[in-house]
Amino acid sequence: MGLVIIFTLVTILAAIGGFNALKNKNFLGAFWGVASFLVFGWFTLMTVLHNGIPTGTH
């Protein structure tokens, strides 16, 4: 279940990085930030749909 948390954190950081790169007119960095956001966002969504949201210890 830690995988969902890691994917979510990477997705959030990729979105922030892509936005900051776009704001600074760093288009290559913005491309990789947005691409990472899309890929890891997809992984996050599919992991949550397949395994569920982590609830803690059982």
UniProtKB/TrEMBL annotation:
UniProt-listed Pfam families: DUF2759
Domain of life where this protein originates: Bacteria
Keyword Membrane attached: yes
Transmembrane segments: 31-49
This protein's name: Cysteine desulfhydrase
Species of the source: Neobacillus massiliamazoniensis
Record keywords: Membrane, Transmembrane, Transmembrane helix
InterPro entries referenced in this protein's UniProt entry, alphabetically: DUF2759
